[in-house]
């Protein structure tokens, strides 16, 4: 099977799983061990050493889990959790589909007075705001809309196989861009960003990352 038809089979199988109703309890159970690093709500942590995975597109998440499993994307902390025995195919699809539905607000909640202390704490803990990154926002916006927005979305929210970039830790994004540019994280088909990412300068990347942090409250 060539790469394209292989990909199509994966997509076909996957959208089937997506259409099925999500068993939230089962998904949370599968997610249990992931929380140790990615946090209770999938917000990641340690300033992006652990990326945010809540709200990310299911298809992208699923593909990355497959990439970790096959070690196409090398990561020592992630690898053991993606082994077939730990995370069978069905569980991988389910946890990816569920994570897409987990919303992390970018504004502090307003309480209506009925919430108990734990509910309030959880509401506050779910808020995820990436700190403003340094750089020329206007210049970054121009580069982003010209070179990145076509795939990652005008508001940085991505779709399908194109990951959401907005609301992700700046450090993590920078680390991934560096990995792509060094050829460590491979792009395997012609729609990937490798070409573009090689053409922009370090300054332009910095500005794009600064711009992305300004999009978090855009609707
Ligand atoms: C021991 C810590 C650890 C555990 C447990 C863990 N991860 Fe991760 N995960 C990481 C690290 C570190 C990265 C970032 C890898 C990198 O920098 O390339 C990551 C990256 C990811 C990514 C890629 C995000 C992106 O934007 O590309 C996904 C998806 C993911 N993890 C899902 C999971 C799921 C689902 C589980 C549970 C089955 C899990 N992880 C368990 C540490 C962990
Ligand atoms: C032609 C479509 C396309 C364009 C244009 C594009 N990207 Fe991407 N990008 C992708 C795809 C597809 C992936 C996921 C690839 C993979 O599996 O690793 C990706 C992944 C990424 C990631 C990793 C996200 C994560 O969660 O790990 C970053 C960061 C990124 N792109 C930044 C950019 C920037 C910045 C630009 C503009 C300079 C850009 N991309 C332009 C398609 C594109």
Describe the structure.
51% of the residues lie in helices and 0% in strands. It has 219 residues and is mainly α. The chain has two domains: 3-101, Cytochrome Bc1 Complex, Chain D, domain 2 (Orthogonal Bundle); 137-213, Cytochrome c-like domain (Cytochrome Bc1 Complex, Chain D, domain 2, Orthogonal Bundle), CATH 1.10.760. α4 (58-70) runs antiparallel to α5 (89-101). It is globular and about 45 Å long. Bound molecules: heme C (2 copies).
| Approximate helicity band | 40-55%
Small-molecule components bound: heme C
Largest sheet, if any? none
CATH class of the largest domain: Mainly Alpha
Radius of gyration: 18 Å
Itemize the secondary structure elements and their pairings:
Layout: H1 3-19, H2 24-31, H3 35-38, H4 58-70, H5 89-101, H6 117-126, H7 137-152, H8 170-181, H9 194-199, H10 202-213
Helix pairs in contact: 2-5, 4-5, 7-10
Residues 63, 147-148, 150-152, 161-163, 165, 168, 173, 176-177, 185, 187, 191-193, 196-197, 200, 208 line the site of one heme C (HEC).
Summarize the entry for a quick read.
The protein has 219 residues and is an all-alpha fold. The chain has 10 helices and no strands.
Keywords:
Cytochrome Bc1 Complex, Chain D, domain 2; binds heme C; mainly alpha; disordered N terminus; 219 residues
């Amino acid at each position: 099977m060539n790469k394209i038809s292989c990909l199509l089979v994966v997509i076909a199988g996957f959208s089937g799983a997506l259409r099925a109703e999500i068993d939230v309890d089962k998904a949370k159970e599968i997610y249990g061990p992931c929380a140790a690093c990615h946090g209770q709500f999938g917000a990641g942590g340690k300033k992006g050493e652990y990326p945010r995975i809540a709200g990310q597109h299911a298809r992208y998440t699923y593909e990355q889990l497959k990439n970790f499993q096959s070690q196409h994307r090398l990561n020592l902390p992630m690898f053991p959790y993606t082994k077939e025995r730990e995370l069978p195919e069905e569980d991988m699809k389910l946890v990816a589909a569920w994570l897409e539905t987990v919303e992390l607000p970018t504004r502090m909640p307003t309480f209506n007075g009925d919430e108990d202390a734990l509910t309030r704490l959880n509401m506050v803990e779910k808020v995820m705001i990436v700190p403003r990154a340094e750089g020329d926002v206007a210049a970054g916006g121009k580069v982003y809309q010209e070179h990145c927005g076509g795939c990652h979305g005008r508001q940085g929210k991505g779709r399908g196989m194109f990951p959401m970039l907005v609301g992700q830790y700046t450090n993590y994004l920078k680390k991934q861009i560096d990995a792509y540019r060094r050829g460590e994280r491979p792009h395997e088909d012609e729609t990937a960003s490798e070409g573009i990412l090689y053409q922009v300068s370090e300054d332009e990347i910095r500005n794009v990352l600064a711009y992305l942090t300004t999009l978090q409250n855009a609707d």
